[in-house]
Amino acid sequence: MWTIAGTLRPVPAADRLDLVPPPVAAALGALTDADRVSVVEIDAALADTAEFCAHYGVPVEASANCVIVAGKRGDAVRYAACVVLATTRADVNGVVRKRLEARRASFAPMDEAVARTGMEYGGITPIGLPADWPVLLAPEVAAAPELVIGSGVRGSKLLVPGAVLAKLPGAEVLDGLGRAIG
Questions:
Q1: For the segment 121-179, what is each residue's pLDDT rounded down to a tens digit?
Q2: 38 Cβ neighbours under 8 A, 6+ residues apart
Q3: Which conformational region is residue 88 in: left (phi greater than 0), alpha (psi within -120 to 50 degrees), or beta?
Q4: Strands 147-150 and 156-160
Q5: What is the 3-state secondary structure (H, E, C) of 68-137?
């Protein structure tokens, strides 16, 4: 079923909820398309995109990264998840800042991102985030037939169609979100 899996052997995520943290397991249980999400166990030391793709033979173009952004206006802080292809970077100071109606936007500090998501840094996924957070998707992510994304922990990855991510609570496709690197 997965043409992007390289040397990995994906299994239905619902069959291996032990490979994801509690917020992700709960979200997968509530997801109408959960049967379209698979999970793979990986070496946590190889969780970073470049090392992961090289070691397991997964195309970097089929990998997406989820970053947590904090937008500030006065004393108010709003959080959002941004999901972009690994070959791009999120336009935090332009597109995301405007969407959050913030004066300043930046990547959320690691300890804050971990505490607020219940996930491990370097493995954060858009599945299972707080319900009031927008999940901002680059159009290329939403349109992708197959993607590898974080699972909420560094020791596994999820394989999912972009269309499933586009149906997540709070999901919005945002033009210009992913910018070319370089």
A1: 999 999 999 999 999 999 999 999 999 999 999 999 999 999 999 999 999 999 999 99
A2: 1, 2, 10, 11, 12, 13, 158, 159, 160
A3: beta
A4: antiparallel
A5: EEEEEECCEEEEEEEEEECCEEECHHHHHHHHCCCCEEEECCHHHHHHHHCCCCCCCCCCCCCCCCCEEE
97, two tokens: 């800042």
- Which residues on neighbouring strands pair with residue 137, listed in sequence order? 83, 173
pLDDT in tens, 88-102: 999 999 999 999 999
Are the beta carbons of 115 and 68 closer than 8 angstroms? Answer: no
Tell me if the pTM is above 0.90.
Answer: yes
Q: Which two tokens stand for residue 150?
A: 């974080």
Q: In what order do the strands lie in the sheet with 38-41?
A: 11-12, 38-41, 156-160, 147-150
- pLDDT at res. 181: 84
Cα separation, 33 vs 31, in Å, equals 5
With tokens 């609570």, the residue in question is 169
End-to-end Cα separation, the chain, in angstroms:
34
Burial of 172 (0-12, 13-18, 19+ CB in 10 A): middle
